[in-house]
Amino acid sequence: MKVRDFMIHKVFTVKATNTVEELLKVLNSNRIGGVPVVDVKGNLVGMVSDGDVLRYLSPKPLGFAALVYIMEDGELEDVIIEKLDTPVKEIMTKKNILSVSPDDDFETALRSLSRHHYKKLPVINRAGRVVGVLSRGDIIDSISKIIISRNKEGYPKMI
After folding, report:
1. Structure confidence by residue, pLDDT tens digits, 95-139
2. Does a structural domain hold residue 158?
3. pTM of this prediction?
4. Distant-in-sequence, close-in-space partners of 35: CB < 8 Å, separation ≥ 6
5. 124 vs 46: CA distance, rounded Å
6. Domain presence at residue 157
7. Which domain range does residue 25 map to?
8. Contact 40, 103 (CB under 8 A)
9. Structural domain tally of the chain?
10. Could you tell me if residue 145 is inside a domain?
């Protein structure tokens, strides 16, 4: 089996110049947890996830022994609203981005996902463009469908 057999072909991406607000709209409207960040040619320049957004928007501890947070009425909301204009390039992962090719063995990609605890891997073609995403959830869904179809065809249960 190859990565192309399991990858998501409909890839949602953002540009490094998109704002955090625009990123949130993409994540929310498509019910996804992260996207590749691409340049104008579709080449991978980073990855950004809902976790990156949460870490960026969360209140930072201030004061003695990091026990005091700015939490007065309205202040937190104002800070978050102000941060929504930040470009994605400020919060995305830029270095050591693990990716796979559509022709890579599925088993190799699966080991990479589990070893590094990533939720998604961008799938890059030979030209360096993002052509898909390999997601843990979609892999589990595909494996489940294979198991269900095998059981319907009379194969022994794998449990």
Report:
1. 889 999 999 998 888 888 888 878 899 999 999 999 999 988 888
2. no
3. 0.79
4. 11, 12, 13, 14, 23, 26, 27, 47, 48, 133
5. 12
6. no
7. 3-152
8. no
9. 1
10. yes
Residue 10 lies in a domain: yes
- How far apart CA 120 and CA 116 sit, in angstroms, is 10
**Tokens 């309205």 belong to which residue?**
74
d(CA 100, CA 132): 9
Question: In whole angstroms, what is the distance from residue 33 CA to residue 10 CA?
Answer: 14
Residue type at 155 in one-letter notation = Y
Give the CATH number of the domain where residue 125 resides.
3.10.580.10
pLDDT tens track for 59-104: 666 555 444 455 544 576 777 888 999 999 999 999 889 999 999 9
Which positions ≥6 away from 155 have C-beta within 8 Å? none
